[in-house]
Design brief:
With 235 residues, the chain is mainly alpha-helical. It has 13 helices and no strands.
């Protein structure tokens, strides 16, 4: 299934979206050698795989999606169990509008490592992006069962609940993400948006201002604060 995408708007906003994916741990911007060390890959014995993966990451970051996919293809051909390559190829397919291929890659990553709370959380965020709320909640809940201290799974599940209008559960998940990681500026921003949707303006300002204090370069929080001021001006 190919989803129709407004390519001009997509490319205009793609770099911001990639930054968001980096925040959610969906895309790893670790140096390639660090990735190899952290994941037990011997770059000396498998240097072509790491090289292809590293090139793919850079091309994905630069929004050169088709070229990124070609390099991820080479990485998984060399190592068919390279789950991060499947995840990032899935992200590239997503931004090209091919949801079916993106879905297949995220499923493959989970198939390779079904007990990885990180991989489950990443697939959960993918499901959230394509509107499959129940599947997103399932994956994030499973990730939390595997690691109750994994803040990003709570954050993603909170976003799903927020989108479904379940503000109480959204607040609970964002709050847990913040309890686990008090520097989680994204969770502060998301909780602030939820407070706003509940009409609790003071709490919304407090959370969104905290997000900006933690990360003054987090553009989404400034956008949220703009929405807040607009809300105040209308009352």
């Amino acid at each position: 299934m190919i989803v129709a995408v407004n390519i001009v708007l997509l490319m205009k906003n793609l770099h911001l979206k990639l930054i968001i994916l980096g925040f959610f741990g969906i895309i790893s911007f670790l140096p390639v050698n660090s990735y190899a060390i952290n994941n037990g890959i011997d770059a000396g014995d498998d240097s072509n795989t790491i090289d292809y993966y590293g090139k793919g990451l850079k091309l994905l970051h630069d929004a050169q999606l088709s070229e990124a996919i070609l390099n991820f293809n080479k990485a998984v051909k060399k190592n068919p169990f390279f789950e991060e390559a499947y995840i990032n190829r899935g992200n590239a397919w997503y931004y090209l509008g091919d949801i079916e291929k993106a879905n297949a890659d995220f499923n493959k990553a989970v198939e390779i490592n079904p007990e990885s709370y990180v991989t489950l959380s990443k697939r959960g965020y993918f499901f959230y992006r394509i509107g499959k709320d129940d599947l997103a909640i399932r994956d994030c809940t499973k990730a939390i069962e595997l690691n109750k201290k994994y803040a990003l799974a709570y954050h993603t599940r909170g976003l799903v609940y927020l989108g479904k209008g379940n503000n109480a559960r959204a607040i609970a998940d964002f709050s847990e993400a913040i309890n686990i990681n008090p520097s989680n500026y994204g969770a502060f921003d998301s909780r602030g948006k939820t407070w706003l949707s509940m009409g609790k303006v003071d709490r919304a300002f407090s959370d969104i201002n905290q997000a900006i204090k933690i990360n003054p370069n987090y553009h989404l929080a400034f956008h949220s604060r703009g929405q807040l001021w607009e809300h105040v001006d209308n009352y």
